[in-house]
C-alpha cells in the first residue's frame, strides 16, 4: 500500500527560536501582494526547530534522512528553470531510518552571510528561505519558510551636491542643484532650480524618480524603467532670474537601496528626471543618477526638522506661489 502513496505521511513546520520577538518587514510578492516576513540582516544567526508531525499515529515513517537548508537564490523570470544560488547551507537533522512518532529537531545556522537585499522586480527575484525536507524513496516531504533580508549602510563619507544645466541655444538656460547625490530611503531631496534664460513658453515642470532594473548580460540585456514618483514643481510660465525650491520626501514611495551588479545577474538604479513641457507639448528633460541606501532603525529627528536643516542653504524663492510644496504627512501616506 505504501508504494502507491497510501502509507504514513507527515506534516512539517519550521519555527524560529525568536519568532515571538523578531521584527517583521513588509515585502511585495511576485503577484503584487504585500505580506510580512521575518526580517534578518547580514551576519545574524538563524536558528529554530523543525517539527515533523506524523499524520497517522502508530504507523512508521521510513525516510532517507531529514535535513534543513538555508538558501539565498536569484531567479530570472525568463529563465525560471535555473535558480542561481549564492548561499546554500545544509544541516542534517536525522540519518536515514524511520520515525515511529512525531519528533522535533533543533537547528542553527551561525552568523549567516546574507550579502544582498531581498528583491522582487519586473524580471528578477532575489529571495532567502529555509527549506526542511524529509527524504522519501518516491516523493520527498518538504516545507519552506520565506525570510526577508535588508542590507544596512553607514552614512556615506563623500556625498557631494549635484549641479546640472539644461540648455537650448538662445532659447533656454536652466541650472538645477540638489543638496546631495546619496539619499537614505526616508530622506528628503532638497534642491533649487534657477532660470537664467527663458525664451520659450514653459507650461509644466516636474521631477520624476525613475527606477531602472537591468537584467542579463551582453547582447541579452533587458532594461525595465518604472516611474516611482512624479513631483510637480510648477504649473505656469517662469521668468528669467526666478528660482524655485524643491523638497521631495522619499518616505512615501516604494523604494529599495541601489543595487549594482548583484551576483553579476542584475542591477537596480535610481534617477532623478527633470521634465519641462512647453506650450506646444514638446518635452525637454535631463536625467541624473542618485544612490539610495538603507539606514538602520535608530531614533532620529522628525522628517520636517531634517528637511529644515538640509534646506538652509536653499532657502528663499523669488516667487513662492510657483513652488508646489509637499509635506511629510502627505508623502508618508
Automatic annotation (TrEMBL):
Keyword presence, Protein transport: yes
Gene3D superfamilies, alphabetized: 2.60.40.640
Pfam families given in the database record: Vps26
Domain of life: Eukaryota
GO biological process assignments: intracellular protein transport
Keyword set, alphabetical order: Protein transport, Transport
Transmembrane parts of this sequence: none
Key word Transport present: yes
Annotated PANTHER family: VACUOLAR PROTEIN SORTING 26 RELATED (PTHR12233)
Similarity comment: family membership: Belongs to the VPS26 family.
Protein name per Swiss-Prot or TrEMBL: VPS26, retromer complex component B
Taxonomic source organism: Astatotilapia calliptera (Eastern happy)
Lineage of the species this protein comes from: Eukaryota, Metazoa, Chordata, Craniata, Vertebrata
Amino acid at each position: 500500500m505504501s508504494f502507491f502513496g497510501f502509507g504514513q505521511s507527515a506534516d512539517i513546520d519550521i519555527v524560529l527560536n525568536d519568532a515571538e520577538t523578531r521584527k517583521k518587514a513588509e515585502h511585495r510578492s511576485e503577484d503584487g501582494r504585500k505580506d510580512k516576513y521575518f526580517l534578518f540582516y547580514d551576519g545574524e544567526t538563524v536558528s529554530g526547530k523543525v517539527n515533523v508531525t506524523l499524520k497517522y499515529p502508530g504507523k512508521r515513517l521510513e525516510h532517507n534522512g531529514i535535513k534543513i537548508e538555508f538558501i539565498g537564490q536569484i531567479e530570472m523570470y525568463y529563465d525560471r528553470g535555473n535558480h542561481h544560488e549564492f548561499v546554500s547551507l545544509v544541516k542534517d537533522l536525522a540519518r536515514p531510518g524511520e520515525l515511529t512518532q512525531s519528533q522535533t529537531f533543533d537547528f542553527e545556522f551561525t552568523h549567516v552571510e546574507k550579502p544582498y537585499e531581498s528583491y522582487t522586480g519586473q524580471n528578477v527575484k532575489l529571495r532567502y528561505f529555509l527549506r526542511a525536507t524529509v527524504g522519501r524513496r518516491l516523493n520527498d516531504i518538504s516545507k519552506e519558510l520565506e525570510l526577508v533580508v535588508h542590507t544596512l549602510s553607514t552614512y556615506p563619507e563623500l556625498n557631494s551636491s549635484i549641479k546640472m544645466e539644461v540648455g537650448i541655444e538662445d532659447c533656454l538656460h536652466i541650472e538645477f542643484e540638489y543638496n546631495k547625490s546619496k539619499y537614505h530611503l526616508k530622506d528628503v531631496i532638497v534642491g533649487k532650480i534657477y532660470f537664467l534664460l527663458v525664451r520659450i513658453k514653459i507650461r509644466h515642470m516636474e521631477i520624476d524618480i525613475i527606477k531602472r532594473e537591468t537584467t542579463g548580460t551582453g547582447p541579452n540585456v533587458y532594461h525595465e524603467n518604472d516611474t516611482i514618483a512624479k513631483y510637480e514643481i510648477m504649473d505656469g510660465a517662469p521668468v528669467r532670474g526666478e528660482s524655485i525650491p524643491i523638497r521631495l520626501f522619499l518616505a512615501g514611495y516604494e523604494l529599495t537601496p541601489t543595487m549594482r551588479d548583484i551576483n553579476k545577474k542584475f542591477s537596480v538604479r535610481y534617477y532623478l528626471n527633470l521634465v519641462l513641457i512647453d506650450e506646444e507639448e514638446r518635452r525637454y528633460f535631463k536625467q541624473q543618477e542618485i544612490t539610495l541606501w538603507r539606514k538602520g532603525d535608530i531614533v532620529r529627528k522628525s522628517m520636517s526638522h531634517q528637511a529644515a536643516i538640509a534646506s538652509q542653504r536653499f532657502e528663499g524663492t523669488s516667487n513662492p506661489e510657483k513652488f508646489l510644496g509637499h509635506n511629510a504627512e502627505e508623502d508618508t501616506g
